[in-house]
């Protein structure tokens, strides 16, 4: 069961990171060429939510994955 959580955490980390990048890219593609990029990007809720999704949830999943993985390895070695 613990190994399943590690695999799920790794998959969710990859999905969350890529989804955040896609959300940010959608906003960047809609901007005009000669725009003040950072001013417009930071004010956009889609870009901001993609940024937060990528860095906050991605960090949570990426930091829990190794902990769960090592717990899984230690329980298999002990049993």
Task: Write a concise synopsis of the structure shown.
With 79 residues, the chain is mostly helical.
Model description:
The protein is mainly α and 79 residues long. It has helices at residues 2-30, 37-43, 45-78. Helix 1 runs antiparallel to helix 3 (45-78). The longest helix is centred in the last third of the chain and has 34 residues, at 45-78.
Descriptive key words:
rod-shaped; 3 helices; single chain; about 80 residues; mainly alpha; about 0% strand
Order of helices and strands: HHH
Q: Taking all residues together, what is the mean pLDDT?
A: 80
Shape: rod-shaped
Which class of secondary structure composition applies to the elements? mainly alpha
Largest sheet: none
H/I helix tally: 3
Distance between the termini: 14 Å
- Please report the total strand number as a whole number: 0
* CA radius of gyration: 18 Å
In helices, the fraction of residues equals: over 70%
What order do the helices and strands come in, and which of them pair?
Elements: H1 2-30, H2 37-43, H3 45-78
